[in-house]
Amino acid sequence: MEITGTAQHEAWEARTLPPVEQLRPDLWSIPVPIPHNPLRYVSTYAFALEGGGLGLIDTGWESEEGWAALTRGLSSIGGGVGDLRGVLVTHLHFDHLGLAARVREASGAWIAMHPADVDAVRRLTTTETQAAVDGEVAFLVGLGAPREEALSDVGGAENLAGFSRMAVADRLLEDGELADFPGWDLRAVHTPGHTPGHLCFAEERTGLFFAGDHVLPKISPNISTSPGSGPDGDPLGDFMTSLQAVRDLDPTEVLPAHEWRFRGLAERVDSLTDHHERRMAELLAAIRAHPGSTPWDLAAHLTWSRPWEQYARRMRIFAITETDAHLRLLARRGLVVGSGDPVQTWTAAVR
User: For residues 234, 200, 160 and 102, what is the CA-based torsion angle, rounded to 10 degrees?
Assistant: First the structure.
């Protein structure tokens, strides 16, 4: 892999916010900070349209600091929020969709997403926050979490209040459709896994590939189950299929939503695929050593970026639900068997 976003990489190493960058005469990256998050920022991409105005890919986390960064960034390239005509949102997570409602209110811009994520956002914005908390707690208990610890990790309804204010997109983009941006040939590539409706955008005029969170240069994106996954959902299987779907596109440059721009998409896809295969092998070994364990139990036996005892709250939830996603793919491959109980336990399949 070749690092092309050198200023972004230097800022990442220095743990600072990268600068606004002009990537082409008609394209800019604008970093928007994410509060209290190791990812630190999301890269939004603004581009000039034929006939005037701007388009935007992703908006950033909803906060006053985020809004200031986005508006200041647009001003620095000679534009403003009022120049935005439309926004493509790669997926429903708050660091990508969070400011979309405010952008739409200030500019009248349309917002486009994949229907699967639009459906999820609609559920989030119409579910009473305490009911959402109760649903997530019940889901974690079903994965083996002690109820008190699940309650502590999820926290109060106030933690989910922001999700009820997220924008519901007014345009739908299916796989293969072109976004309505004059002068640009941005084709939607449906890449489910990180979320059910995650979209990348392949720009056919320039060969650029806007990867969202699907392929990042260093971090492996979180692939988790959720209360909305349903018992038959297989987000990791979807993600692995989506990786192969983009592997051979051979773009001129990959523009991810986090970290830095790079070349070498096929190499990075292979690395991510290998990572998940190794993780499943480690998980299968843990199941053989501890048969009849829940996802909550098994996560403690896996290798993480820090000692398991330091995991709590949202980080622990992500770890448990990511373990569950790996278990589901192992089950589809016939390597493990679930008990079928309300709190499911897992054993290695007999071959």
Answer: -160
Long-range contacts of 15-20 (CB under 8 A, 24+ apart): 15/40, 17/41, 17/69, 18/43, 18/260, 20/73, 20/76, 20/77
Residue-number span of the structural domain to which 225 is assigned:
2-127+159-265
3-state class of 103 per DSSP?
A: helix
Tens of pLDDT, residue by residue over 115-146, are 999 999 998 888 788 888 899 999 999 999 99
Say if 343 falls within a structural domain.
no
Task: Find the CATH number of the domain harbouring 208.
Answer: 3.60.15.10
DSSP state of 308: G
The kind and range of the H/E element at 237 are helix 235-247
Per the structure, the count of domains in the chain is 1
Q: Which amino acid is at 26?
A: D
Q: What is the pLDDT of residues 56-85, one digit of tens each?
A: 999 999 999 999 999 999 999 999 999 999
Q: What b/e readout covers 202-236, taking b as 16+ CB neighbours within 10 angstroms?
A: bbeebebbbbbbbbbbeeebebbbbbebeeebbbb
